[in-house]
Amino acid sequence: MKKRSTVIVGIDFSAPSRRALDIAVAVAARADARVELLHVWNPNHLAGSGAGHPEFESWILEQKQVLADQLQRWSADAAGSAPLSATVIEGVASRVLPERAHEVGAGLIVVGRRGSANLPHVLLGSVSERVVHLAPCPVLVVPEQTRVAAVPERLLVGVDFSQAAREALEAAGELAATLGAKRGIVVAHAQPRDPRVWLENSSEPGPPDRDEPALERWVARSPLAGVTVSCRIVPGSPETCLVAAADREACDWLVLGQQGRTALAAFLIGSTTHRILKLADRPVLVVPRKAGSPGEGSS
Prior knowledge:
Layout (H helix, E strand, L loop, with lengths): L5 E5 L4 H17 L2 E8 L2 H4 L6 H25 L5 E7 L2 H12 L3 E6 L13 H8 L4 E5 L11 E5 L3 H17 L5 E7 L3 H7 L10 H9 L8 E7 L2 H11 L4 E5 L13 H9 L4 E4 L12
Parallel strand pairs: 1-2, 1-4, 2-3, 4-5, 6-7, 6-9, 7-8, 9-10
Antiparallel strand pairs: 5-10
Helix pairs in contact: 4-5, 9-10
């Protein structure tokens, strides 16, 4: 995320979106950016036989104004050192947020995530995960119960030696520099003990036995000037050991590259990313692939 960009935060008036707004404002203040609060509502499912009737259309306008007033109150409550604007748009949230980000050239989208890993309704295809899938810029997914600082002092980047992981690492380096993350970056590669688990999670061909020197050589190929970097090989399945490593290393955010495909199966945003989004107890930043970026698999 570069300085003086736009941070879009999706607001549905829930507790998670309040936490997402707090983080968005704090990050924007540090990055000299502006914040756009965006509430998306879809009145089409309310229309039924009332569509086109003057009384119904009048009611729709009234409801939109109620939402706009509520959003303005949220904006006023969040006012700080970052400039804020608030907009209500009709449509489907998972599409409108990425579209708006594209229109304004946003550097970041921030969305809340309801529920916890223990609740069955946190499913693949939630609004936050669809936003991640469609967004043209990094998306920060904020869980409801997050307890970490609003502005990160340390980031954990989960990598698998892929090009997507490299792009996530470089985005994390830029973010750390912009936000002044004084404790830097931990680069962690999860190495399952069972090769079959590695096949289910890796997006790159090659042997699963990667060591810390190989990881350090891989990291050294990215421009991360001025950012403190530590490398870790963590044993276990990525979705559990990366979340645990973030806690153990006192990292405020996790950073992941968006793969979109694992070695054995295709998912909406990649199975590992999906599972980490469900399990994480702190914000997860998902970095999209750059258009036309090549594949990569060597150390």
